[in-house]
Amino acid sequence: MHPAFSVIFLTTLIGAGQGLFLAMVTGQLYAIARFLPVQADRFYAVGSLVALILLLAGLASSFFHLGRPERAWRAAAKWRTSWLSREVIVLPIVMALVFAYGIAHWMAWTQPLFRVGESLQVDATLLLGLLGTLASFALFVCTAMIYAGVKFLQEWHTPLTVVNFTFLGAASGFMLAAAYSAYIGNPLVTFFGTWAVILTLVGLISRLAHLSRNAHLKHKSSVQTAIGVRHTAVVQKAQGATGGSFNTREFFHGRSESTAGTVRLVFLVLVFPVPILLIGAAYVTASPTLPILAFVAQYVGLMAERWSFFAEARHPQNLYYQSVA
Amino acid sequence: MTQLALVIDLNVCVGCHACVTSCKEWNTSGWAGPMVDQNPYDGSPTGTFFNRVQTFEVGVYPKTETVHFPKSCLHCEEPPCVPVCPTGASYKRPDNGVVLVDYDKCIGCKYCSWACPYGARELDEQQQVMKKCTLCIDRITDAKLSDRDRRPACVLACPTSARLFGDVHDPDSEVSIAIRERGGYQLMPEWGTKPANHYLPRRKTVMHIDQDELTRVDNPLRKEDLTTYTGEETLDDVAW
Ligand code: SF4
Ligand code: SF4
Q1: Of B131, B157, B125, which is closest to residue B45 (Cα–Cα)?
Q2: Chain A partners of B107 at a C-beta cutoff of 8 Å?
Q3: Which strands sit side by side in the sheet containing B51-60, from one edge to the other?
Q4: Domain span at residue B136?
Q5: A176 touches chain B (CB under 8 A)
Q6: pLDDT at res. A120
Q7: Whose CA is nearest to atom 4 of ligand 2?
Q8: For strand B130-131 and strand B122-123, is the pairing parallel, antiparallel, or unpaired?
Q9: Is residue A274 part of a domain?
Q10: Number of structural domains found in chain B
């Protein structure tokens, strides 16, 4: 498949935004459970603002994928059958909840609304945080199912796609939370850094599982089933176009196999070992810049990861577009 | 229920592209148009087509065979391209089974093209909406046209009659009989898309001729022939 930059930015930016929001809520939950010192409301508010900016940037970049962006609102129509439609609905819900969560903290709406049991005081921020968490996970599922739901793209048609999108998005968000804490000199950097490393490691396991699954994939269609001729030697001589067509532009990555291999190597290095080592080094040296570097390296790596994700998918329609003559 | 479809006979298709040009001509100037080209007279011409004739070579030289293979939307009975469309622009007409795109609703997200294993959908570069074969919906539903003309442009144009058009749900239609009696098959049956369009396979016409059909071994005239031949024409050469 052709890796479109609009989609690469969309999926990586909203992944980091959702992850950062999840990190903020996790921080708050730990503080409620008294595992962590309570933070000023400002900390969560600014974190949510950054998450919101990432979500907005992702949304903006998604418009570049559309031929007719002015009609984008129509995409909410078929949520019963289309994962794309579901994503279009859930994304604004997540943005609204992230916004509300940030505002609730900013305005310090922390008077308890009701109590659960003896000690748990439930306030507006906690409610919005939990709703936002649910919506964020729903958004990970919707985004990933756009790809995992197309059975023709066998490389994508696996639950591993959903697992990867979720863990890699969450990892980059927690990495950003660590970078944010380091930048403002908040001691939570260790907490977020540790979670970022754990999520990155889980992401590594599932991405490697995905790669090895795809390396052994048997494609259902062949040129024989494509044209219905039973012979071992079938070669395409002409595809009905001289200068290519939509079919040759949309479904091929257009780079050499060695470039695709290099990109795969780049993401395997930048997404996993580099940020883990940088977080480890930051832990030892208490450096405020290394976590920021870790986030940037991982984000760049994730763009390469998404490129590679597209490039490795082989669409059955390509069987009809093997030669230009 | 009616399911209109094409049946394409690979045994007679000669790869002349008449269907391609007449499709483009009819549809670019009609309801589904324009079908825009880029660099039409330049080095790398490209553009939107609903129908393309591709060519495959089967076998290894010298035992090869050329297969010309016209390909357009197959109007699947279980069209995977329809449920994925977020806007509802892609739909299957309940009355005749034709799969269509509403150009006023399409946002050009290309998702439907990912969900078609046949590469039958093409995004128009100028209009930025998804386009595909409509089976000439504006012809075949036009009651003002005569029965002869109320057929897709490609079917009317094909000089070898390689393209049949009709209702594949009516067992007595020309297309159903052709599918049933001439080995009609569907493309990529492994995906369960149930294409309505079918293809008729190539067939070898073999005639068996015995030696005695070429030379008459029991020519009665030979018995009465008293000539002694010295190299000239014999009776066997001139009559048998
Ligand atoms: S051939 Fe492709 S575009 Fe046409 S109905 Fe089938 S899946 Fe949809
Ligand atoms: S490109 Fe148009 S027809 Fe295709 S899925 Fe998107 S909105 Fe629907």
Answers
A1: B125
A2: 66-69, 71-72, 74-75
A3: A234-238, B51-60, B63-72
A4: 4-200
A5: no
A6: 84
A7: B112
A8: antiparallel
A9: yes
A10: 1
